Amino acid sequence: MDKLLEIKDLHKKYGKKEVLKGFDLTVDKGKIIGLLGPNASGKSTLIKIINGLLTKDSGKVLVDGEEIGPASKAMISYLPEKTYISDWMKVSDILGYFKDMYQDFDFNKAVSMLTDFGIDLDAKVKNLSKGTKEKVQLSLVMSRNAKIYILDEPIAGVDPAARELILNNIIKNYPVDSCLIIVTHLITDIENICDEVVFVKDGRVYLHDNSDDLREKHQKSIDQLFREVYSC
How many structural domains does the chain have? Predict the structure, then answer.
């Protein structure tokens, strides 16, 4: 089955405020997807539902054919926007924690990624910069053998010079039979690695298409198209 993520008529309210209003999306394996939209468009709620951190009001969400639950959670490797690793730990401690926590964690792969980033395994987290902490978390998340990788703002906390290194490591380390969903506002930096982009607007999918086809059809970059769509 090529469909790794299938969402049909998904609805979610917070009180009287409807955040997701019949959201539909299908993501196939082997794809890198840019999930794009302004603040309050519904992206964060969507991600939390997929990860089982929020319950939907109605609709269908399937991860490789499984309803949201323990089986689906085991297939998803999630990088949240906020740093969650503890300051008292060493980088090596975190590696050990992930090795114990996740059966699909590839310890050697994580060490290789951390080495590529120039991160000392004996370094204490409290002494790391915000950008370096994010690289540590990214290395951990990408070292799981998951079906779906969801990265929420993976390059927001690093300087422009480091973004290319991070994106290259992401591409190099995700399995080809999985899918990768990148949520970001830095569209110019990621649009060339995305096979497809999804524009989220007012709790629905406004646009979902192949990146190259969109550029050819509109004769503009994804970033330019994004600015055009959300300026009105």
Answer: 1
